[in-house]
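Hi,

I'm pasting everything inline rather than attaching a file, because the server keeps stripping attachments. The sequence lines come first, and each chain or strand is labelled.
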Amino acid sequence: MSQTFSLNCPLPVQRYPQVLLAHGGGGRLMHQLIEEMFLPVFGGGAGGLQDAATLVLPGQRMALTTDSYVVSPLFFPGGNIGTLAINGTVNDLAMVGARPLYLSVGFILEEGLPMETLWQVVQAMQQAAQDVGVKIVTGDTKVVDRGKGDGIYINTTGVGLVVAAPERPPIAPASIQVGDAIVINGDVGRHGIAIMGVREGLGFGTTIVSDCAPLWSSVQGLLEAGVEVHCLRDLTRGGLASTLNELAQAADLGFVVEETQVGVLEQVRGACEILGLDPLYIANEGRFAAFIPAHQVDRALEVLQAHNPPDTVPQVVGWVQEAPQGQVVLRSQVGTDRLLEMITGEQLPRIC
Amino acid sequence: MSQTFSLNCPLPVQRYPQVLLAHGGGGRLMHQLIEEMFLPVFGGGAGGLQDAATLVLPGQRMALTTDSYVVSPLFFPGGNIGTLAINGTVNDLAMVGARPLYLSVGFILEEGLPMETLWQVVQAMQQAAQDVGVKIVTGDTKVVDRGKGDGIYINTTGVGLVVAAPERPPIAPASIQVGDAIVINGDVGRHGIAIMGVREGLGFGTTIVSDCAPLWSSVQGLLEAGVEVHCLRDLTRGGLASTLNELAQAADLGFVVEETQVGVLEQVRGACEILGLDPLYIANEGRFAAFIPAHQVDRALEVLQAHNPPDTVPQVVGWVQEAPQGQVVLRSQVGTDRLLEMITGEQLPRIC
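And the predicted assembly:
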């Protein structure tokens, strides 16, 4: 973790190898951290050192979303807490059909955190923000005593512009209709298993890489292709099963999912068997379900494939019907049905 | 702390006396917490259970601000982490002349937190939001393992409408002018000392109550009275001294502060002497500095007094001149000058 940044390493990293309580105290050290690390990387933005960033918004239909990130460990195959904090919030905006415009970033740092770790996370955030075209415009830094945090917690709050046509019904559970196809943009379970692999020190033969990715370009692609998107939802905490339950309840309709249509990587399935986990309940960070009219499925799959990495295949996994109201039915390979319930306990804590 | 809510105590409080990891897991327990505690108190809002709230904004000049709150202890005379989280973010919007409209709330809860404590904080947040007329529209809940947090951390991010006249220079350090009066809306040091009093178990004879308060009505009052507000800044972390240093540097001008003009309550001064602290560096949560043309001082004081509680008196504490550039001079009672520096270390950690 230490080789990549020696050239551009900012001064606070050199002078203070660890985060001190004073880095959150409002004085000289905090300003140094902001001016020498955050502002050069994130850009002065519209905020600078003001209490709030002032923005001219390009429209009046806006979206606001917030997420705190407490993933453990901070680094995992395919990303770190910083990439997660950008992509996760960007994705929440995308899920209501909003183009991500601005982000705020709130750090809660634990006293003693290696400054180098913060620096790597900050760089990853900027890279992720740049990749998706979102601007980090304001921020906040707090430091808590040793033993009262776990390295880094990050809150990102996002403001986006709703681009879905105003004359169409909103992209929301209430717009889901009987007959809609349930399309998923790829296989499930990678993120949670990538985290578990590092956390438990499990090898699983090959490294499973998180699917953590921004979803806005896929959503934008669907909208631009004229696909009537009724509802979108990313398959994060609680995985596919909990997300679909949430939506079935909100829409008061019944969903049928064909088990054989849900893609699960061989290695993910193997790891789940070892760990006694069900891939349908594992969190993803780059997967979403789209509810679209059945006649537009081909076009949607084409668009999604065009925005996917080559190893990820979108799939129609099910459809919407009247019954059982508010519930999700899983149809097995041999045609037997069972209810797919919402997760009750905590299958994998702190995966985002 | 336990008497006030038994009547309306929501079900999760009764069923789960403590926060479990599963309350942040994306499953049934998390939804229960949201549906039975957060939504009924904060209101379904535009967000409901969607990933993002969609909002129609009443204008295009908007402000965005974020703050995380990690105050210890969670409850103190005059407020708790919840009131602080609402007022602090509302105040950051007010400081750029923006009417607070919408807030997001992100909780990071520690496993084992008494559910009753969360309930009290949630109620306090709603009360504070209602008092200032801001809507909580979206949120997030994460739970971290026992020993990896400190009860409750809260991030609030605020969206406001900039109401300052667009033809005027923005309310910002760059708009500060030579000759401006520096007006403070009240005495300093109450919040930090209120926190210290609880934390250290000090009596100080009488209880010192935090000045934690929303500042929007005062700012609105100044703007509506036609006061040309050049810059505003709340006197939080680092206190009056650090805040003025920050602004002097940003404006590249010199500030003179008359020590005798800065109000400090008798008990606050006494507590500071016992603790070896300087009240000018103590954090406030309901005080701000306003930079205004000298000829408008009387009107400004009148407006500020009208919005203050009876025991709080606004005061002109100094003025702006060319030199010493980027620095703050403190003029003592006997007329001697010394530089008032920005705080270097951490005088009082985790006061907000």
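DSSP finds nine helices and 14 strands in chain B.

If the labels don't parse on your end, tell me and I'll reformat.
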